[in-house]
Design brief:
The protein has 553 residues and is an alpha+beta fold. It folds into 3 domains: 5-111, no CATH class; 220-322, Roll (Pdz3 Domain); 334-551, 2-enoyl-CoA Hydratase, Chain A, domain 1 (Alpha-Beta Complex). It has 15 helices and 29 strands. Strands 14, 15, 16, 17, 18 and 19 form a 6-stranded antiparallel sheet that branches. Strands 20-21-22-25-26-29 form a 6-stranded mixed sheet, with helices on both faces. The longest helix is centred in the first third of the chain and has 18 residues, at 135-152. It is globular.
């Protein structure tokens, strides 16, 4: 074992294989680097620094004696010779030290990672043929996740209590079984990520590790609203009418089911987390409530009386075959229709994508509205989860009465880890705060450039998030028109711009924010989503906007 200095004990040749050296090579020293010394003292340097405090007494029973270090280069020096070895991370270099008397000792230098969470050992990464992780691997993955969240995110404790968070981490690790499946690890780790309270920082559900085509599954599909209703969107053989409100499954109330699932879903507000839950409901339902049969209590649309139906689970093929057919059409990112009779146009805005395309689209749409003298425009963001905020700038220039900047303040955190993940080693680590000058705000178009002179209504829901939420906030703050619907899922001060992180052993994928944004003139002491001027359920927002438009004709 390595201790202060280096005392060489003459040792018999040892027969142990090492990376780059076979057992016979170690016996003979053939092919190994050799250091010669005139006496029994050898000094060591780690990355150019002399290790005066360390003394190495070679232990013959170690066969060979192993030096574990994080140094990239290790130099051994005697009175008459020097030898430098440079093993790669998690690799070893074997060497021979020969005294003036002809005695030889064998050593192995093994380089460990300076940060195993960022560079785990191959042994830690290796998963058993069963696909199960050991308890040690699962714990390592959770601790690596927590480390990486704290290194990337601007402040993981801004929305949650630090002590409560780490108690939850310890509890999750303490309750791990000896063998851990990927889905079981997700159930342990996802609530930790969700505690941060940032809708952009989220652990993805391992659908491919849970569902196979042959796996029997729940025979109906659901949507979940921001006010906590579970609505059937389809069922095998149509036995639960589409639009029915599901009240209980296998004797468990809807509220109990949803409340048990919410801890796994990230988001700033409960209404957004509920709206988002539909995307992972099927997976959580299978993991938390596996069943051999399903008894569903529901209320059909327009009915007061509750009904009950019982189902057996079905395979993916059966589900697709027996669900009532719906016409499927790919929704473009944005489109519009015109109702000349009611003097209104409706823009269906589904995603913030392709700024150049939006430029052509907006120019064409507003020219058409001017030529047809359409005085009301309804922009529908109810199903818009965000995208590129620059797309919103392009549209806002046609409808904003004042100069604007969707994000007039931002904070960017850069660490060595996040710089590597961004593939930009030239970024200096630090916290960078940016504040827009009002002189640099984006100017709206002039009437000659096509600025829209009609009334504008914006439809929002609890699902309106990210760039859609910042657009909504700027729309209202700049006085562009009337907001109709529900509070948006995205907040006026929020984290965003994400890096994709994979847990090192399980490869579970997380998205992690590395910036914080203050939306247009937002107040950090009053954080909330865009509040509607006319509050109605999102399902009624379009009808309400049409009513307002007709009323003002």
């Amino acid at each position: 074992m390595f201790m202060r200095g280096l005392f060489l004990a003459a040792v018999a040749a040892v027969g142990i294989a090492a990376p780059g050296a076979g057992a016979e090579d170690i016996k003979s020293g053939a092919g190994m680097p050799v250091l010669r010394t005139a006496n029994d003292r050898v000094s060591m340097w780690m990355d150019g620094r002399k290790k005066n405090a360390d003394e190495w007494t070679l232990d013959p029973s170690a066969r060979p004696d192993v030096l574990e270090t994080t140094a990239a280069t290790v130099t051994f020096a005697s009175e008459c010779d020097t030898l430098t070895v440079s093993p790669k991370v998690w690799e070893s270099v074997d060497l021979v030290i020969v005294t003036a008397k002809g005695d030889s000792a064998f050593a192995r230098v093994t380089r460990q990672s300076a940060n195993p969470f960022e560079e785990p050992s191959p042994a830690m990464r290796k998963i058993a043929p069963s696909g199960l992780l050991s308890r040690e691997q699962a714990e390592f993955d959770i601790r690596a996740l927590v480390y990486s969240l704290s290194e990337i995110h601007p402040d993981i404790y801004s929305m949650c209590d630090q002590e409560a968070f780490h108690r939850a981490v310890n509890k999750a690790i303490r309750e791990l079984p000896d063998s851990v499946s990927i889905p079981r690890l997700y159930l342990a780790a996802a609530p930790l990520v969700a505690m941060i309270g940032d809708g952009h920082t989220n652990l993805g559900f391992p659908f491919n590790d849970v569902f196979t085509e042959e796996l029997p599954r729940r025979p109906y599909t659901v949507d979940i609203t921001g006010d906590g209703r579970m609505v059937c969107s389809g069922s095998v053989d149509g036995r639960i009418p589409e639009g029915s409100e599901i009240l209980a499954v296998n004797g468990m109330s809807r509220d109990s089911i949803l409340n048990s699932m919410l801890p796994y879903v990230a988001g700033e507000r409960r209404h957004f987390r509920l709206a988002r839950l539909a995307g992972v409901y099927s997976g959580l339902d299978y993991l938390l409530y596996p069943a051999d049969s399903y008894t569903v209590e529901f209320r059909a649309p327009g009915k007061k009386k509750t009904e009950t139906v019982s189902y057996q689970p079905v395979t993916w093929a059966e589900l697709n075959e027996r669900l009532p057919r719906k016409e499927e059409s790919k929704r473009p990112p944005y489109s519009y229709t015109v109702n000349e009779k009611d003097n209104v146009a409706i823009m269906d805005f589904n995603s913030f994508s392709d700024q150049e395309r939006m430029g052509h689209f907006a120019d064409s749409m507003f020219r058409d509205l001017r030529e047809r003298n359409i005085g009301n425009l309804i922009i529908d963001l109810r199903q818009n989860g965000g995208g590129n905020s620059n797309v919103g700038d392009t549209l806002l220039r046609y409808i904003s009465p004042i100069p604007f900047d969707q994000f007039d303040k931002s904070l960017v955190r850069v660490t060595p880890l996040s710089a590597r993940m961004r593939r930009n080693a030239n970024i200096t680590p630090g916290l960078y705060f940016f504040e827009a000058d009002t002189a640099d705000y984006i100017n709206p178009r002039s009437p000659e450039e096509g600025h829209y002179a009609g009334r504008v209504y914006l439809l929002t829901s609890n699902y309106t998030f990210s760039s859609a939420a910042s657009f909504s906030w700027t729309f209202k703050e700049a006085g562009c028109g009337t907001v109709v619907g529900e509070e948006t899922g995205g907040m006026n001060v929020a984290y965003g711009d994400i890096l994709s992180y994979r847990m090192p052993v399980s490869r579970l994928r997380a998205s992690v924010s590395f910036k914080r944004f203050w939306q247009f003139r937002a107040n950090e002491n009053d954080i909330h989503g865009t509040l509607p001027d006319v509050a109605v359920p999102s399902s009624a927002a379009l009808d309400e906007a049409l009513r307002l438009a007709r009323k003002r004709r």
